[in-house]
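Bumping my old thread because nobody answered last time. Still need a sequence for this structure:
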C-alpha cells in the first residue's frame, strides 16, 4: 500500500525569502525575463489547489514575500477558502528560522505529511531541499507523490537513513535536517553532519561521490563501475573506467560491445546497493536478464572515463527495467534498456 499521502502543501508565490539558507533552491532562482515568464500561471495554481483538495489535503501554506507579491494572491485565497481548506500565509520559507550554518539539533519530520511546490511547478520534499521529485506541468500531483521513491524513503526513515543517526536515541522521531544534509553530503539519506549528536561520528557519515566497492557484489576484475557520483529521484550518475588489463578490453584497446550493457547493469546495481548501504538491510546481488534498444555510437578505450546516467523506469517484485545513457567527454557513446533480476545478498553496514 502506498503511503505517500500528505496533509498539507506549501506553494511559493513570490520566489524570494527573508532568510538566506545556503541549501535552499532560492539561492539559485533566476531573475531574468525568461524565468519570470516561466512562473506558474493563475490557472495552473488553481488546478494545483484543486488537485490537492482531491487528494484530501487539509492545509495550504503560501509563501509570498512582501517585496514581491503575487498579483493574483486574492483570487488564490478565495479558492482556498471556497474549498474549506486551512490556510497559512508566510513571508519566509519553513526552515525552522535558525541559522542552519551552525551546528544545531533540528527535529524535523516535515516530509511525513507535506511537500513544497516552487513558482516554476517543481515539487520538492520541502522548501529547503534542492531535490526535485517531479513537476506539476509534466504530471499530476498525485502521480508525482505516489511514484516518488525519495518521498517514500523519507516517510520510512527508520529503514532508510544511513549511518550514526540510526543509533541515536532520538531516531524514532528525528532525522536531522534533510535539506542541509543533502546540500553537504550529496546523499539525502545520510546522517546529518551538522547535528551536535554526530560531531564525534563524522567519519561514519556517507558522502558523494563514493567508491562503489561496497555497493555491488562484483569483485575487482569483473567490476566495471568505479564511483557513484549523484543520486536523485529514480536516477543516479555513475563513473566507469576500464583498466588496460580488463577482460572487457579488445586487443586494440577498445571496449567489447557487450561491455556497455554490463556497465548499464552494474550501474543499476549501484543504485540499489546505495539505497541499502549502511542501513542494516541486505544489499542484493543480481544478474542481467537482457537488454534491448542497445545502440552504440562510437568506440571508447581503456582508461577513458565513462559517465552513466541511469534511470529506473519499471520495477515489479525482484525484476527491474532501467534505461541508461553512457557518455565520454560529454559525447553520447551508447544508450539502451536493461532488464535485471535482484536476489538477496550480504549486509554492507560500515
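Sorry it took so long. Here it is:
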Amino acid at each position: 500500500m502506498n503511503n505517500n499521502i500528505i496533509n498539507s502543501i506549501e506553494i511559493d508565490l513570490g520566489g524570494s525569502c527573508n532568510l538566506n539558507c545556503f541549501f535552499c533552491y532560492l539561492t539559485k532562482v533566476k531573475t531574468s525575463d525568461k524565468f519570470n515568464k516561466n512562473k506558474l500561471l493563475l490557472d495552473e495554481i488553481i488546478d494545483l489547489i484543486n488537485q490537492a483538495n482531491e487528494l484530501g489535503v487539509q492545509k495550504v501554506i503560501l509563501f509570498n514575500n512582501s517585496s514581491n507579491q503575487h498579483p493574483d494572491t486574492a483570487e488564490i485565497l478565495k479558492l482556498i477558502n471556497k474549498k474549506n481548506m486551512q490556510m497559512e500565509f508566510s513571508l519566509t520559507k519553513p526552515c525552522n528560522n535558525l541559522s542552519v550554518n551552525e551546528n544545531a539539533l533540528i527535529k524535523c519530520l516535515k516530509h511525513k505529511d507535506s511537500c513544497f511546490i516552487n513558482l516554476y511547478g517543481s515539487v520538492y520534499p520541502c522548501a529547503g531541499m534542492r531535490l526535485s521529485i517531479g513537476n506539476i506541468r509534466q504530471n499530476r500531483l498525485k502521480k508525482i507523490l505516489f511514484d516518488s521513491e525519495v518521498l517514500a524513503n523519507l516517510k520510512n526513515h527508520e529503514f532508510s537513513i544511513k549511518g550514526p543517526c540510526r543509533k541515536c536515541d532520538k531516531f524514532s522521531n528525528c532525522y536531522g535536517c534533510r535539506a542541509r544534509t543533502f546540500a553537504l553530503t550529496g546523499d539525502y539519506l545520510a546522517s546529518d553532519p551538522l547535528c551536535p549528536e554526530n560531531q564525534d561520528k563524522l567519519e561514519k557519515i556517507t558522502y558523494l561521490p563514493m567508491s562503489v566497492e561496497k555497493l555491488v557484489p562484483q569483485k575487482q576484475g569483473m567490476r566495471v563501475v568505479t564511483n557513484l557520483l549523484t543520486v536523485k529521484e529514480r536516477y543516479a550518475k555513475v563513473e566507469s573506467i576500464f583498466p588496460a588489463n580488463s577482460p572487457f578490453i579488445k586487443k586494440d584497446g577498445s571496449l567489447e560491445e557487450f561491455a556497455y550493457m554490463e556497465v548499464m547493469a552494474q550501474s543499476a546495481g549501484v543504485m540499489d546497493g546505495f539505497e541499502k548501504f549502511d542501513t542494516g538491510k541486505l544489499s542484493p546481488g543480481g544478474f542481467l536478464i537482457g537488454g534491448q534498444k542497445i545502440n552504440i555510437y562510437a568506440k571508447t578505450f581503456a582508461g577513458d572515463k565513462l559517465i552513466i546516467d541511469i534511470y529506473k523506469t519499471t520495477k515489479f517484485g525482484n525484476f527491474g527495467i532501467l534505461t541508461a545513457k553512457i557518455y565520454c567527454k560529454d559525447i553520447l557513446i551508447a544508450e539502451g534498456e536493461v532488464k535485471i533480476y535482484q536476489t538477496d545478498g550480504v549486509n554492507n553496514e560500515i
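The first helix runs from residue 33 to 37. Let me know if any region looks off to you.
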